[in-house]
Amino acid sequence: MNETTQDILLFVNGIKYTINNVQPEWTLLYFLRHHLRLTGTKLVCGEGGCGACTVMVSKYDKFEKKVVHYSVNSCLIALCTLDHAAVTTIEGIGNTEEKVHPVQERIAKAHGSQCGFCTPGFVMSMYTLLRNNPQPTEEDIEDACESNLCRCTGYRPILDGFKTFCKTYCCKKELLEAEKQTQENDMDCKLYKLSDLMDYDPSQDIIFPPELLLLKDKPTKSLQINGSNITWFRPSSLDQLLLLKREYPKAKLVVGNTEVGIEMKFKDISYPIIISPNEIPDLNIVKHTDEGIEIGACMSLTKLNRILSDAIEKLPEYKTRTFTAIVEMLRWFAGHQTRNVGSIVGNIMTASPISDLNPLFLASKTRVYIQSAGNEKKEITMDESFFTGYRKTRLDDDEVIIAILIPFTKENEYFLGFKQARRRSDDIAIVNAGMRIVIEKSSMPSAHVVKDCTLSFGGMAPITVVARRASNFLIGREWNKDLTELIIPILNEDMPLSFSTPGGMVEYRKALACSFFFKFFLTVTSRLSPAEDITGAEIPPTYLSATSTFKKDPTRSIQVFEKPDANQSDNDALLRPIVHTSALKQATGEAVYCDDMPKYERELFAGLVLSQRAHAIIESVDYSDALSMPGVFCHVTADDIKGFNLFGAIQADEEVFATKEVTCVGQMIGVILADTKQQANKAAKAVRVVYKDLTPILTIEEAIQAGSFYPCDHQIQVEGIEQEIEKSDRILEGDIRIGGQEHFYLEPQSCLALPKLESGEMEIFTSTQGPHLIHENACKVLGVPLNKVVCRTKRLGGGFGGKESRTLLVALAASVSAQKSKRPVRCILDRDIDMSTTGTRHPFLFNYKIGFSTYGVINALRLRMYANCGNSLDLSPAVIQRSVLTCSSCYRIPYFEISSYLCKTNIPSNTAFRGFGSPQGVFSIETILSEIAADCGISQLQVRELNLFQDGDLTHYGDVVEESRAQLVLNEVIKRSDFHRRQIDIESYNRENRWTKRGIAAIPLGYPIGYPIKFLNQGAALVMIYTDGSILLNHGGVEMGQGLHTKMIQICSHILEVPTERIYTIETNTSNVPNAVQTAASMSTDLNGAAVANACEKLKDRIKPYQEANPKGKWEDWIQAAYLDRVNLSANGFYSVPGLVPDSKGNKGKTYLYRTFGAAVSEVEIDTLTGDFHVLRTDIVMDIGKSLNPAVDVGQIEGGFIQGMGLFTLEEHVFSPNGYLLTRGPGTYKIPSSTDIPNEFYVYLLPNVPNKHAIYSSKGIGEPPLVLGVSVFFAIKDAITAARQDAGVNNTFRLDSPATCEKIRMACNDRITVS
Length: 1315
Prior knowledge:
Layout: E1 8-12, E2 15-19, H1 28-35, E3 54-61, E4 66-73, E5 85-88, H2 90-93, H3 102-109, H4 119-132, H5 138-145, H6 156-163, H7 173-183, E6 187-188, H8 210-214, E7 223-226, E8 231-234, H9 238-247, E9 252-253, H10 260-266, E10 273-275, E11 286-288, E12 292-296, H11 301-314, H12 321-331, H13 336-339, H14 344-350, H15 358-364, E13 367-372, E14 377-381, E15 387-389, E16 392-393, E17 399-407, E18 413-421, E19 429-441, E20 448-458, E21 465-466, H16 468-474, H17 482-494, H18 506-527, E22 556-562, H19 583-588, E23 604-610, E24 616-622, H20 624-627, E25 632-636, E26 646-647, E27 654-655, E28 661-662, E29 668-674, H21 677-686, E30 688-693, H22 700-706, E31 709-710, H23 721-726, E32 730-738, E33 750-755, E34 762-766, H24 771-782, E35 789-793, H25 808-821, E36 825-828, H26 831-837, E37 844-852, E38 858-870, H27 876-886, E39 895-904, H28 918-936, H29 940-946, H30 966-976, H31 979-992, E40 996-1009, E41 1018-1025, E42 1031-1035, H32 1044-1056, E43 1063-1064, E44 1068-1069, H33 1084-1109, H34 1115-1124, E45 1130-1136, E46 1154-1167, ...
Parallel strand pairs: 1-5, 8-10, 9-10, 22-48, 23-36, 34-35, 38-39, 42-43, 47-48
Antiparallel strand pairs: 1-2, 3-4, 3-5, 6-22, 7-8, 11-12, 12-17, 13-14, 13-17, 15-16, 18-19, 19-20, 20-21, 23-29, 24-28, 24-30, 25-29, 26-27, 31-39, 32-37, 33-34, 33-36, 35-44, 37-38, 40-46, 41-42, 41-45, 46-47
């Protein structure tokens, strides 16, 4: 090598850094957060699957001879690869102290930042787009954001905010029409004003460092960096690379680190020697030849896309059919950040059996140019012999791919690629394929014969395969429709999948392979010259829908809400769409989350020692190896606990540290404390635990069989229920299942425990929805009274119920460790550990028997519900109680008996999730109604309207229905969505299209708000006015993105009549507001808002005399006067919900005071051959009383709906037979992305519907919209019904939740699925 150095020259936000002693395993994100303390860039998944860590890299590209800007996942890209690069982070483009960047301003003011943890990543994706294209189209913007995930907003406000950079956005017809209509009826559709946004001036963006430009003409130097565990080489020539491969034949070549980085982090694979060939000219070439295009092995996938797209535009169509297939595949290949750095050769040599590109390379007979250390050159055609085993190729260890040649296609050659994944964008394939065929006219009139054929598949074997029998079978045969029948058994022979095949979904994968060929046949046939009459290959016009490729139009949306009263002062913030108080700080990276806090002196990091068995006796635990590792301080076990080794939200039935027995994979056994997180986690894995295995119980069925239940007293018994059912006109019975759901809050579970120097005091900084719950349990475990410990929560990067009780795991681990070590202890879970230890939404199984009239009116229902609770009780009794009480939604069920069961299993304890048990319960009733409609031969809408409850009806738990607006919201959404006309259009579409079907569903909802447990219905606040007139507002609620602090400030501002800028909320703190209930149940505004109002009214009364004495004075004058007169300028507020218990006037009390009503209409289109679907349109109408902040409430509605859509369609948990969670990151667990949201998304807040039971006539809104996501599920079911009708199959079928692509496809019975 020419030069050996440990130095990397890097610019970050315009500042030069010469970095010494670089460790090759350091990622850019690690360097930014831990060395530069730039914490605006977030760590969420660590695998490049969420986009939260996005930054912009700028380099002078010596091959393109220009400065290039591209987005990267900083959690994966190796710092070593960024020598002579400039990195721009969220902090580098703007801040609130000086000036924010227009991108930051627009995402904030458009209300696109809720919890804010994803915001920096979105900002940097958009910023990078603008650096490359200052005038993007709407399509460009949606494309740039598709690989960034958000769990809060539902994406719409993010995209809308960014689309203001499009010149045409403000003139969109639907927006202008909506504005005109709302002005006529005291409604509004503007959540922000375009005129308030600053202009974007590209000339003000940070420039590329001149120092790096001066180096552009100097030869690239070779580098060698010797780390503690890895030696990293960057050769500058092909000769140097080949010499290195001779010396280190097992060395790993890394270009983008998108695969190796994941292997090292999550699979503990060690690569002592890494070679980065990125800068070698021979590996970055592009040559256009007579045979095709030769492309260097290190060319990024983004550049490959650009090269091929340019060729498609310039060359005849017939020559570029392979290129077109590759470009189409790249649309859905990972995300922008991955494609920008991932290389062609990396994709080939990774040899993944589900590679998106390798089936295309095999089918097209792409050529690979190889050179070895002995300088031997050879050329290999990629065929069935190229991949020799799982992640193995024909190449020898010392051989290197130099380039590939992608050949042109001939006029009579047709080429297509196919892919099906769980989610359309940024997802790995379930099955993919490349198909090439050469067809020539035969001597027979009007006949065509197959001259050559290659059918290649991924996801059907341990390697990418060529279906050789099927390919050979087609050669020489006439091209006609009989082939589609004949090929099915041959494909199944080529690619046999046993029942135990890794990845499961065996029948679905086999069906996909055959479906892909069917699509291929139809597409090729449709493209053959229309003038040629192809005997036996005619395509019915209804079949052409199978030949189309997916194209999503830019999203359209309108949000309509009620204007404030005309008499309300313009300065009054209440009922107005003001921006989330932290939005700008979140958009600039200045907002501080738990792990962003600066490191304390002598701070230790906690690595958790976790069970690797689902159920076992612990025979021994050996910490000796771990304790001998560098940086390790000590270990912590149950023996170190001074209080109780038990905790729990309702009942203390869970050990902090397991002592004798483990009851799930991921249960905590102990803690390793070390100087760094990496050292702690590595040492924790080195702890040796000897187990004696016991038989685990994982599923509801296994629990039922074993009689494994927790005690449960939430039952509703109805005498004579069986007789009532039997005397009904019709009876149905069956089972319904709904799976769990991962919270996927972007900020992982986090805690920092800070021990004090006296009396056992401690401060606990934690990301929790329940500071009091942490406070109470921590003190019991630590053995100290509550007055010695303070729990503090600044904000959460998302919660959704997952941080209500399960935060106890990390909080107790950190607290006990801090108590033992007498040093600060930080515990931050990695995403895979978080997902595999903290539980999910409860999966449910329902068994029902229902009696109803011939017309579809329900008479009696017996429902058994089983919840999979996991290995501890946690909040499961409250979850199933909620499901029991709210499952009827807005429907009248005269006789309703419910039996509920809490299944005790050996999976991590399931817990609270937005909606608690309501989504599962409502899903069961909606499914039953759907079955009734099918049985009675009436419409889905009709059966729901027939059974809506009315005022005066009695619920199954004894409350009288009052102010029901179920019919009102349903009527409104039917009208606004033009439901009936669209139903007719859908029927017409379905008649004309055999292989794509559309469906529509209208779902109403009545969602009871509140806690059914009396003591939880309380809120408290502390409001303090300082002598300068500023106000510090404290309350018991936690800000987790839902805008709670913003609404509290609006209430305070309204009562005290001061600008919101005077009011500030620092944090939620148990020393300011003690004993606060968890922030949950859509009740936080009701409880804390009323408490804040109570405190502010007290202060208003105290200040009033000084206002009257000096009416021309200012706020500061009145405060100063009151202070000098010794008036208490601090007030406690308190509120307890009235009417929940019997009173002296004979009122028996209510379980819930009111309901939030809503209704949604969703329309979908499904591909019946693959199970793919997309949502064409959703209309939502909500009755939320008087909205305190329409922007916040609309955000909750849209975000909740998309989260619910994920629950009912995309999100699926998979456990191995031994209890190990397989879906433990964004690579395997799919939440909706921005490409999954409805193409048209309309929200309407019902006007003139005050609510007398809550603060300023508002209503709780956080949870109800999630349940409306079920409208997408039933629209899918409607579309499947249409497909089954075409196939002549019985329309009675079971569809469990989630309605994944697998379930959709297999429900669309046809000749392929039954083969």
